[in-house]
Amino acid sequence: MKYNNRTQQQCKEIPLQAYWTTFDHLNEKQFKWYIYWRQEALKLNFMEVDLSYIILFGYELINYSFNSKAAFNVSMMVHLLENYKELHPNLEKYFSTWLADMLYELKEPELAEVWDDNQAFYRVPKLYNELHHKEADKISMNIWHKYIYNYKETKFFQEHKNKIYKTFKKSILILQSIHQENNSTLLNEWFEINQTREIRRLFTSAVVERDVDDTHIYVTSFSIKNALNEEITNLFRLSENITRRMNGVNRQIKVEEENLPSGLKEKMESNFIKGDYEETENRFQVVQQKTKEEQGSAIPAKPSENNAETENRNEDKAEVTFDAALISKTVSDTTDLVNTVEEMEGEERKEEEATNPFQSAVAYSSTENSGVPSNNETEPAFQTMFDVNDDESEAEDMKAFFSSLLYEELQFFNLFHNDVLDIADAESFIKQNNQMLNVFIAGINEKSNEHLEDNIVELDNSSIVIMEDYSDLLNEVKEEWQHEN
C-alpha cells in the first residue's frame, strides 16, 4: 500500500519473468519501470510490457491495496485484459476468472457470469441460443444437422436437397405453432434447465493478502430432451416425403409419425401440397377474351377424287381409341417394376459387400458409429450428407461460391469488419452501384444457397452480419483471393 501513490519519470523497460509476482521479485530498475508503466496505464496509455508486470498490477487490484473503490478495481482489470489479451493470450484465463471472483464477492452474480467460463453462458447449447435470438427458419442447417440421426442419403435427396432444406425450415415454423397452440414452446419441449448451488473458491492461482471467504453460486445447466432428436429427425424425413410428393414422386421414406405432434403432417400437406396446387391454378389468368378475326379469301378446295376410291380408303381407316384403364394399369405396372429392380440392386449391393471383407469392415465401422449417442455424447456420427466437418469439401464449396460472385459483390465482402457491416455503409455502397440493398443481398444468398446450401449473410437490426458457420472459411478464401489478385 505504501507504493500506491509512487510516481516515476520515464525510464527503460527491464524484462521480468516471475511466478506469483510480488514487489519482492523486482530489482531497483524493474521497480522503477513497473511504477512508470503503471502510471501510464492509469492514463490509458497501454505500452508493451511483460506479463509478470500486468499480473502484479492485477494482484494490487484484487487486494484493493492500490485503490479501495471496488468500481475502479473492476474497471481497471477490464482495461488491462482488453488491451493486453492479444499480446499475452494467457492473461485471459487468469483475469476473466478473477474478474468473476471479484463480482461474485461484490454480490453481482449476473455480471460475474459474463466473465465466468464455467458458468451458464458456457453451458448453453448453440441451438438454444439461436432459438432464443432468431426465428427458427433462419437457423443454419449446419446446426440442425447435429440433431438428425440414422438418416441415409437418398438419390432423391442428392438431386433436391435445397428444396428439402427449404421445406424443412418452413416446417419448423409449423411445428412451433402447434406447440404454441398447446401452450408450450420449442425451448420447453427440447431443453431441460437445471439450477444447482455450488461452492466457489475465490482467487485461485492469485496472491491474496486479505481475508477471502468462499462463496455460493448458482450454476445453470441445460440438458437436451429426447424429443429434440426425435422431432427433428422425423420432421426432416417427413419434409423429404412432402418434397417428393411436390415433385410427383410416390415412393416415400420411413417416418415415425408417432414421435411428431398430432396434426403436423396434415398441416404440412395443406401448406405445401394443396397450397402449391391452388397457387398453380390461380397463377394464370385470362387477360383478353378470344375474338373472332376477319377472314381472308377461302383456301381453294382440294381437287375432287373418285368418290368410290375415297369411300374405300375411309373404310380401311381404323378408328383410334384410348383405353384409360389400360394406360393406368401399364403405368402402375411399370412403376412397380422399377421399384422392384431398385430393391434387387440394393440386395445385390448388400451381398457384394458381404463377400468383400474390406467393404464389410467399413460398413460395420460406419454402422457402429451412426447410432444415437448416449446422454454423455455431444456430437453424433453422420452419413455422407452430414459430414459437416469435411474441411476440404467445405473449402471447395466456399471457393466455388466466391468464384461465382460479381466484382461489386466481392467488393461488398471487403467492407465487413469482424464479420459485421453497418447498414448505412452498406446502403451507401449499394447506391453507388445503382442497386437496392435487399435485392443485392438476396442475390448473394441465392448463390450461397447454390454452393453452400445456406444463406451466408443476414440482416440483424442495424447491421449486416456474416453467418458464424462460414466466417472463418470465408476469411481464408478472401485472403487467398486477395493474394492471388
UniProtKB/TrEMBL annotation:
<feature type="region of interest" description="Disordered">
    <location>
        <begin position="290"/>
        <end position="318"/>
    </location>
</feature>
<dbReference type="Pfam" id="PF13208">
    <property type="entry name" value="TerB_N"/>
</dbReference>
<protein>
    <submittedName>
        <fullName>TerB-C domain-containing protein</fullName>
    </submittedName>
</protein>
<feature type="domain" description="TerB N-terminal">
    <location>
        <begin position="9"/>
        <end position="130"/>
    </location>
</feature>
<dbReference type="InterPro" id="IPR025266">
    <property type="entry name" value="TerB_N"/>
</dbReference>
<feature type="domain" description="TerB-C">
    <location>
        <begin position="307"/>
        <end position="474"/>
    </location>
</feature>
<dbReference type="InterPro" id="IPR028932">
    <property type="entry name" value="TerB-C"/>
</dbReference>
<dbReference type="Pfam" id="PF15615">
    <property type="entry name" value="TerB_C"/>
</dbReference>
